[in-house]
Amino acid sequence: MSSTLFRATSSRAVQTRSLLLASAVAVPAARARVPPHFLNSTRAYSTEPVKSSGSSTALWWGVGLLGASAGYYFYSSSTPAKPVVALKKEEKKPLDYNEVYKAIADILDEDSDYDDGSYGPILIRLAWHASGTYDKTDGTGGSNGATMRFDPEGAHGANAGLAHARDVLEKIKKRFPDISYSDLWTLAGVVAVQEAGGPTVPWRAGRVDKLSSTDCPPDGRLPDAAQGQGM
């Protein structure tokens, strides 16, 4: 009986192992036979992976910009900066009246055909007529202002012919624009006297030109040689 029981038990064990093996084989087969349309539907609802081509391009651009920035920083740091040179404002030279004196002296005899061959006499006359109109009672007239440049003073009878003297000195004025006409005319008279062998005439600069004819003195202030010494 015991042997019969052992054979029955062994037979059941064999059947159990056979059933387990059959189940193990059947599961892969069942999985292999999943309908294709079910798999397709599952993929349709899944999230597709993001394409990385655009991200890669942006990444390379970023790397390139960083490299360029680093190169510029290295170049600018290693290259010594050029010193900034401050432009110096050119200082204006003061007027040298000795140079003006020489320039006037050089033109005194430049026209041998004029009068007696010298501008000396007419320059002395110009300086005298520009100065002789001064009136000490009201401080008008005189050399300070050079108002003979304007009418009516320039056309006064006593000043006839002096336009030529003023024109001769105009070239000196252009060469030395900082000198006033008032200083130029009086200095020309000094040059004419001294270069002709006359005495040393004290002179100083600082006269200021007037700007219009409203400062012209009235006619008649200059002595009239035709009236004799009593005038």
List keywords for this structure.
7 helices, mainly alpha, disordered N terminus, Peroxidase, domain 1, 231 residues
Question: Brief description of this entry?
Answer:
51% of the residues lie in helices and 0% in strands.
Your description of this structure?
By secondary structure, the chain is mainly α. The protein has 2 domains: 1-32; 97-227, Peroxidase, domain 1, CATH 1.10.520. Helices cover 51% and strands 0% of the residues. It is built from 7 helices and no strands. The protein has helices spanning 2-32, 36-44, 53-78, 97-107, 120-131, 162-175, 181-195. α5 crosses α7. The chain is elongated and about 110 Å long. Residues 204-231 are annotated as: Disordered. It is an enzyme of class 1 (oxidoreductase). Pfam families: peroxidase. This is Peroxidase. It is found in: Mitochondrion intermembrane space; Mitochondrion matrix.
Structural class: mainly alpha
Question: What is the percent of helical residues?
Answer: 40-55%
Number of strands: 0
Radius of gyration: 59 Å
* Overall spatial form: elongated
- The CATH topology label of the largest domain is Peroxidase, domain 1
The CATH architecture designation of the largest domain is Orthogonal Bundle
Function: Destroys radicals which are normally produced within the cells and which are toxic to biological systems.
Family: Belongs to the peroxidase family. Cytochrome c peroxidase subfamily.
Pfam family, one: peroxidase
GO cellular component, one term: mitochondrial intermembrane space
